[in-house]
Amino acid sequence: MSTTAQAPAVRLRIARPVAITSRGVSFALLALAIICALALIAPGQTITTRYLPDLLQTVDHIHRVASGQIPGRDFFTPLGPLAVYLPALGEKLSGSYGAAMPTAMAVMMLALAPVIAHVATSRLHPLLALIYGALLILILAAPANPGESITALSFAKFYNRIGWVAISTLLVLYLEPRTRSVTAADAACAILLTLVALTTKATYGLAAVGFLVFMLLDTRQRQWVMPSVAGVAIVTAVIALIWGGTRQHFEALALSIEISGAVRGSWGQIVDHLLLNLSDYVLATLFAGIALTQTRSLRDLVFFLSCGVGGFLLVNQNFQAWGIFTLHAASVVAAERILRALDGASPLPEARRWTSAAGAKLLFLLLAAPPIAHFALTLALHTGAAIADSGRPAPTPFGHLRIADMWTGGDLRTADVYLTNVEEGVRALNALSPRPTCVVSLDIANPFSAALGLQPAHGDSSWLQWERTVGPPSAALAPSLLDGAMIVMEPKPAASSDPAAARDTSRVGALFQETLAADFELAQETERWIIHRRRAPQTLAGCDMAQQLGEAQ
Question: Where exactly are the structural domains of the chain?
Fold first, then answer.
């Protein structure tokens, strides 16, 4: 009788996924920030494809700060002091106008990365923290206006990206810590984020302060909220005393609101904002709905609604179509709420809970992955184009600032026309005798003082854009904006390649015609500029009139 030996049973052992720890996520986010900072700084120059006037407006701010001027006190701007001093710091560290903005954004990213890492890892599941933290860091790193194509490279409107990241990080503090109390670190992060928002742009600052006031209602987190509110109040008061331009800054803000309205844009533009962000609203609503079925919390409902409505009001104040990042904040908070409910006393079987948790993580990844990929590719394109010296350099002294064509329609032609206007204005100013100083430009930006190394005027506005910073309500203020001017550069509308821009140029110029006729005379006229010189010799604030008279003799 023969026996058949049975083969030993083979057991398949399924490897469990490697657990992601909070400490590992923190290291990963800090490493990502360092890599992105190197990608910005290493090429040593800026590549831009659009919004060249906005970039030269930043150059003007840098020159004003280097000349000793203080924003708000010495010149009008609705932007906060951080939005002026940060580019100046970038120029100081890099040594050139062209490398100033990449350096400035790298500094800001490295400063906020530890805050992002702490807030994300202390409140969120490690995978959610990794995804959300990477999104926030890449928003800061990508040199482009959110909602525009990967090839639309520009550091213009950089302050909006800083504001979005500050408020979107702050909102995650709505959640209680996952493990232990971290009161001191939470308070420090909240104070820093709120101050960054306040000193960058008032709308983000108002949202940040409103969030802290809302958090005072949460008795479970008052240990860090109350010190945060007190810290913000004290530091803000100190900044106001040192700054000395608070009153003028609020006047500029009030005028900007009066000109543009509390909610910018026509009804068509408002509808466009809703439609372009519709998918984000749908996913955020889905997240919030699922979370609310678990928590049944009125506070959660108010929080989610505030993120949706407040985010829409913020984006509607920006020159930006897509990118309501408070929706991503609401979604990640909702995803965390779902995970905590599943980890708690959930009646679902273990397999069902695991599937539901995986679904929540996957759904948030689907929401965050497209912008993460978009911003990463934008950064990579800028770095590659900068290393390859793409495009052509802007005229001296704007070296290391290159204008390139990245298949962005007529943007290159618009930039070429604008640069031609600037170059003609520079040549005309160089031909004047005596050497001009205290030059005011009735254009969106004033690059002339920086281009020629001139002493900037005092009391003027660094940003003249129709229906954003200047309009009919500013007619009474217009004469005072020329009080510190020796030379006024008035652009001719025909010099613009855009009919709408030409119309706006005419409107801006019309506000100043009475003052120009009374106090100035024609010094020179070119194809693109009318140059006015002040008639009567007088002492102007911050303008060395005696030197000018000496040169004239």
Answer: 22-386, 411-552
**Which amino acid makes up residue 398?**
F
Q: Which residues contact 148 (CB under 8 A, 6 or more apart)?
A: 321
Question: Which H or E run contains 243?
Answer: helix 222-243
CB 144 within 8 A of CB 215: no
Could you tell me which residues come within 8 angstroms of residue 199 by beta carbon, excluding any fewer than 6 positions away?
Answer: 80, 81, 82, 83, 205, 239
Sign of the CA dihedral 434, 438, 442, 447? Answer: positive
CA proximity to 228, closest of 185, 269, 188, 283: 188
Q: How confident is the model over 143-176, as pLDDT tens digits?
A: 999 988 898 899 989 999 999 999 999 999 999 9
Do β-strands 520-525 and 529-534 pair in parallel, antiparallel, or remain unpaired?
antiparallel
For 367-423, give the DSSP string: HHHHHHHHHHHHHHHHHHHHHTT-SEEPSTTSTTEEE--SS-TTHHHHHHHHHHHHH
Rounded CA-CA distance 287/225 in Å is 26
- CA 174/CA 181 separation, integer angstroms: 14
What are the pLDDT digits (tens) for 317-346? 887 878 899 999 999 999 999 988 887 655
How many whole angstroms separate alpha carbon 341 and alpha carbon 338? 5
The SS3 assignment for 117 reads helix
DSSP codes of every residue in 472-519: GGGTTTGGGGGTT-SEEEEE-GGG-S-HHHHHHHHHHHHHHHHHHHHH
Give the global pTM: 0.89
Residues listed for the chain: 553
Lookup result for tokens 């930039």 = 415
Q: Please state, in angstroms and rounded to a whole number, the distance separating the CA atoms of residues 513 and 524.
A: 16
- Report how far apart, in Å, the C-alpha atoms of 422 and of each of 156, 285, 443, 481, 525 are: 18, 48, 11, 21, 14
DSSP letters, 50-96, are S-HHHHHHHHHHHHHHHTT--BTTTBB-SS-HHHHHHHHHHHHHHSS
Question: Rounded to an integer, what distance in angstroms lies between the CA atom of residue 222 and that of residue 225?
Answer: 5
Amino acid making up residue 183: T
Rounded to an integer, what distance in angstroms lies between the CA atom of residue 389 and that of residue 402? 8
Provide the 10 A C-beta neighbour count for residue 200: 26
Alpha helices in 261-387 (DSSP H): 267-276, 278-295, 298-316, 325-343, 350-387
Conformational region of residue 255, where left means phi above 0, alpha means psi within -120 to 50, and beta covers everything else? alpha
